[in-house]
Amino acid sequence: MAALGWLTPRRRSATARSVLAGEASAEAARKSVPETASEEPQFPVVGDDKAAAFFDLDNTVMQGAALFHFGRGLYKRKFFETRDLARFAWQQAWFRLAGVEDPEHMQEARDSALSIVKGHRVSELQSIGEEIYDEYMAERIWPGTRGLAQAHLDAGQKVWLVTAAPVEIAQVIARRLGLTGALGTVAESVDGVYTGKLVGEPLHGPAKAEAVRALAAAEGLDLSRCAAYSDSHNDIPMLSLVGHPYAINPDTKLRKHARQLDWRLRDYRTGRKAAKVGIPAAAGVGAVAGGTAAAIALSRRRR
Fold first, then answer.
1. CA-based angle 266:244:172, to the nearest 5?
2. Is 154 among the catalytic positions?
3. Cβ 140 vs Cβ 65: under 8 Å
4. pTM
5. Does 58 participate in catalysis according to the annotation?
């Protein structure tokens, strides 16, 4: 029977090592259990009328820049000439490849747009904006970001676009997406006709934060319960205002900042930017330029 002694349970007191092993095993088991929904507060909070959501537009809600797409639509309607289209195409190519808003490029685009619409009626541009949305913008809406906005709407909260694009265009996009409204750059008009000047400055960077702050005060919102979404480090002032900041398709600076502050990140892009996968930037620009040249040639053929 002695040979079978190893089968008989032995009574031994727990050593320090066995206690440690047992505690470590229990802790590992506890961590392996998925967190339940109750451990993380539901967001957005249904019925919280003191909360709202603020979404940047370019490269956050929509791929590319709204102003550039608007320019394409105006060219189609002969608001300006071929050389202006080439400039718009280059600006859009740069924006797509760089993935960030360069103040100099954006200022040039705004100046071009202001000169183009000068003398036109506001109502005319609003009507054309509806058509341009269908032609160039609808298919460029990020489904993921659209879903985030819908979650806020489903929770009974207001959702606003906040963009440097002209407010008339921003309002068209907000309406077509079923959002509450839009904050955008305001172009001066007299008797319903554009003068070619801005009211104040473009709604960009710190100006966005001030617009959100003013709207929140007027709407009676608690910014600590609100959310903001953007792709650009230029919008850090706006994101820092709210209690729930999100970095969407973030540029390098915003991604770094978001990680440092433990902000939530979402990336809905299907692949990395050209420079990150070894495709020369010039190739991307050439493709866009080639497409633009083809479009111009086709346009001339049809005349």
1. 70
2. no
3. no
4. 0.70
5. yes
